Q: What sequence folds into this?
């Protein structure tokens, strides 16, 4: 059965890295290719919840993220690619949901505690940051989806979305919002791809490989990547589980098992592994990079305009039903 699927990525940065690609985008593309009806959102409002002293250039970030979506395999002819703030119903449903969500629930969301601790010294917690999962619930439920593909870290947000859906339905006596499913990546090693230093891949750690890097940049990143620290000579044994190069080889180098065995036995040097990985990774990213290079701002703006129109049509229909259920409008 074809299903309706909604997912989103924050436009905190203008570039997606291979962690985003393997952990999220790849699943969206698979679902698209299986024929499902996809709504793929650039969550620009969400990027405002944790901004530092400088507001991000969202217009720029959103375009660039959308380019990476398409580079990674989303097809705007088949999937609806849109920017959250271009569909005003997200803000409207967020307001309504904010009336049916208890403060205590939001304060207990684990990502809220983490984000609160991450804020710069002395920066107050904004109302918007507390409401982050309420906005996310609006993002999701506007499209009354069957499923939402996300990483594991998002599970608490999706649980809250389902609670909001249930409580809205019960309060207003409707069956408007469905019990959607979490679609979690079945491939653990893709879902948790480490950075080149083996920490979580994140722009703030400067340990990312970006879809839109050049081949030289990718090569340089891999050459400097973390390997088994006690492996100095080729004949020293390596520990592939703790080596960034080996972790990437698992995804990108066919027959990596043999390379891992040789590494463990001290029969292969890190340099050989790095060279093979650079070759394979650049080959994997090449068609994406080429596709990305064909998309200028004009082309992407047209795609985002068309995507927003489709998303608005669907979202407006949901909002009509929300208002009718709540008996909001006198006329
Ligand atoms: N919170 C998600 C993240 O940090 C991004 C997001 C915003 C999202 N709205 C969404 C994901 C709706 C799925 C559905 O990755």
A:
């Amino acid at each position: 059965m074809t299903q309706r699927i909604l997912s989103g990525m924050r436009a905190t940065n203008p570039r997606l890295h291979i962690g985003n690609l393997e952990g999220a985008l790849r699943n969206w593309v698979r679902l698209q290719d299986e024929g499902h009806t996809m709504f793929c959102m650039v969550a620009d409002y969400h990027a405002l919840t944790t901004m530092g002293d400088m507001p991000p250039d969202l217009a720029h970030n959103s375009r660039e993220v959308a380019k990476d979506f398409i580079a990674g395999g989303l097809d705007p002819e088949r999937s609806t690619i849109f920017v959250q703030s271009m569909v005003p119903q997200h803000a409207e449903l967020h307001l309504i949901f904010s009336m049916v969500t208890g403060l205590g629930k939001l304060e207990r969301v684990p990502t809220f505690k983490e984000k609160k601790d991450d804020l710069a010294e002395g920066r107050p917690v904004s109302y918007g940051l507390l409401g982050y999962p309420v906005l996310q619930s609006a993002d999701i439920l506007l499209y009354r989806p069957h499923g939402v593909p996300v990483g594991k870290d998002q599970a608490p947000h999706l649980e809250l979305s389902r609670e909001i859906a249930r409580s809205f339905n019960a309060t207003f006596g409707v069956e408007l919002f469905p019990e959607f499913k979490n679609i979690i990546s079945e491939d653990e090693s893709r879902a948790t791809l480490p950075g080149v230093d083996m920490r979580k891949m994140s722009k703030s750690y400067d340990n990312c490989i970006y879809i839109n890097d050049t081949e030289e940049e990718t090569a340089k990143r891999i050459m400097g990547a973390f390997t088994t620290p006690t492996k100095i000579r080729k004949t020293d044994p390596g520990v592939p589980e703790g080596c960034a190069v080996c972790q990437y080889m698992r995804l990108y180098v066919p027959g990596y098992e043999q390379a891992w065995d040789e590494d463990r036995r001290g029969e292969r040097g890190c340099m050989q592994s790095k060279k093979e990985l650079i070759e394979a990774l650049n080959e994997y990213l090449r068609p994406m990079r080429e596709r990305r290079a064909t998309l200028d701002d004009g082309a992407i703006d047209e795609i985002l305009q068309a995507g927003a129109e489709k998303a608005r049509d669907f979202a407006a229909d949901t909002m009509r039903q929300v208002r009718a259920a709540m008996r909001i409008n006198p006329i």
Q: What stands out?
A: The pocket of tryptophan is lined by residues 6-10, 43, 46, 136, 139-140, 148, 150, 154 (CB under 6 Å).
